[in-house]
């Protein structure tokens, strides 16, 4: 197995990207698709609507990579410079492309609109390029091939670019370059930090064959492991990565919750549905974000019954039912309070499981004993109440998200450990349970 790596650079053109007025989501999507096609993206570059900057970026990219994929700057107005810059770079003139003109004319006619002189100019292309049909819009793409290098210019509008890439550009790149087969295998872990995870699997990682590489992809509360295998046969690579993934089970199996693109909230939903268990939530510091994650999953009504958001002391006491003496003695951010919240919400909604959050998200509200990022979470069922104290970050948004992930993981751990036994919720009083 001896493949030359085919490399690509993504060049985004437009002042709006540099000013931060729009987010460049194209580059991320293109990187994924190119990787699946066996093409390695080695650089992403953004330049503004300045001719000299665009020409310099094109020249530098040509020296670095095999393929330059350009998005943006193909509109009909004077600030759209990509097309004239490409004509200048490849030393050829602009000429009306009759096929492109027919396509643009038909596009406008199909929408009952007249083709203006400005829009007509979108069919004027560099004479030295091949036209790439835009089935979703009016700006044709352009394909240039010189000295074994390929340049492709596409619209910046995401749905136009994606259709062009999928239907035309990627298939043609695979015909042009001898690309290897690339297979990715993603293993998703939660509840363990990147460095601790790396330490646990160090021997396994060091024994990986040369054609399979491991990447750590940390996020808020979770770390994804991505195996990337390069070779000749997709089936063989998939079998290899699957076997390697299986070897992780005895090492870090308790932290692995899913493979591929399945999120933690989807995994938790599957566990609850399969066990026919129902869930209710009392969330204070997370302010509804945990419920948002739960309800982002289609079909969550099979297991999720509802949420209370008792943010203030008053609501915790009067609407939820936390005893005043507990709040007065221990405060809202405490283990006794979180135990009551989880047990009471379970009783109020008559669900199998109740979970709760209470903490100091920040930036204010901290004390020396309870700094910003102090969060208590709890899981309650008829047999036990499990609590966790988290010490998170100084950042409010991070704390809200990480606390929500921690609760999802707490549900996962306890449903899995119980063997997901189906039990009917029992009639209960609103008295707090006892921590196990």
UniProtKB/TrEMBL annotation:
Domain of life, source organism: Bacteria
Residues making up the signal peptide according to the UniProt record: none
InterPro entries: CinA (IPR050101), CinA-like_C (IPR036653), CinA_C (IPR008136), CinA_KH (IPR041424), Competence-induced_CinA (IPR008135), MoaB/Mog-like_dom_sf (IPR036425), MoaB/Mog_dom (IPR001453)
Pfam families linked to this entry: CinA, CinA_KH, MoCF_biosynth
Domain MoaB/Mog per the UniProt entry, residue ranges: 9-175
Coiled-coil region: none
HAMAP family found in the cross-reference section: CinA_B (MF_00226_B)
Family named by the database record: Belongs to the CinA family.
Protein name per UniProt: CinA-like protein
């Amino acid at each position: 197995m001896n493949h030359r790596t085919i490399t690509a650079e993504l060049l985004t053109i437009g002042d709006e990207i540099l000013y931060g007025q729009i987010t460049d989501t194209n580059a991320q999507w293109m990187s994924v698709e190119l990787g699946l096609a066996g093409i390695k993206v080695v650089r992403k570059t953004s330049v503004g609507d300045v001719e000299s900057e665009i020409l310099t970026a094109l020249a530098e990219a040509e020296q670095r990579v095999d393929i330059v994929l350009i998005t943006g700057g193909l509109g009909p107005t004077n600030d759209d410079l990509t097309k004239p810059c490409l004509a200048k770079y490849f030393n050829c003139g602009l000429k009306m492309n009759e096929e492109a003109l027919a396509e643009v004319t038909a596009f406008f006619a199909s929408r009952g609109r007249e083709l203006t002189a400005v829009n007509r100019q979108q069919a004027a292309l560099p004479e030295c390029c091949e036209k790439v049909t835009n089935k979703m819009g009016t700006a044709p793409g352009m394909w240039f091939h010189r000295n074994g290098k390929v340049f492709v210019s596409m619209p910046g509008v995401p749905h136009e670019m994606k259709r062009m890439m999928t239907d035309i550009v990627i298939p043609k790149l695979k015909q042009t370059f001898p690309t290897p087969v690339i297979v990715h295998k993603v293993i998703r872990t939660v509840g363990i930090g990147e460095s601790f995870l790396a330490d646990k699997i160090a021997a396994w990682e060091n024994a990986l064959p040369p054609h399979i590489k491991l990447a750590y992809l940390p996020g808020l509360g979770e770390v994804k492991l991505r195996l990337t295998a390069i070779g000749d046969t997709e089936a063989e690579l998939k079998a290899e990565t699957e076997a390697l993934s299986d070897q992780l089970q005895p090492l870090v199996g308790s932290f692995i919750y899913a493979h591929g693109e399945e999120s933690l909230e989807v995994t938790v939903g599957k566990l609850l549905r399969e066990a026919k268990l129902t869930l209710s939530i009392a969330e204070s510091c997370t302010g509804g974000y945990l419920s948002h994650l739960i309800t982002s999953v289609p079909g969550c009504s099979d297991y999720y019954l509802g949420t209370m958001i008792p943010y203030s002391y008053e609501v915790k006491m009067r609407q939820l039912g936390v005893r005043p003496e507990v709040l007065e003695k221990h405060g809202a951010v405490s283990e006794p309070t979180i135990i009551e919240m989880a047990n009471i919400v379970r009783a109020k909604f008559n669900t199998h499981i109740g979970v709760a959050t209470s903490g100091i998200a920040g930036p204010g509200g901290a004390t020396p004993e309870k700094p910003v990022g102090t969060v208590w979470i709890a899981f309650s069922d008829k047999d036990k109440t499990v609590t966790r104290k988290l010490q998170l970050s100084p950042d409010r948004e991070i704390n809200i998200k990480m606390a929500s992930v921690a609760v999802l993981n707490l549900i996962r751990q306890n449903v899995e450990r119980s063997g997901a036994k189906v039990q009917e919720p029992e009639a209960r009083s609103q008295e707090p349970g006892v921590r196990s």
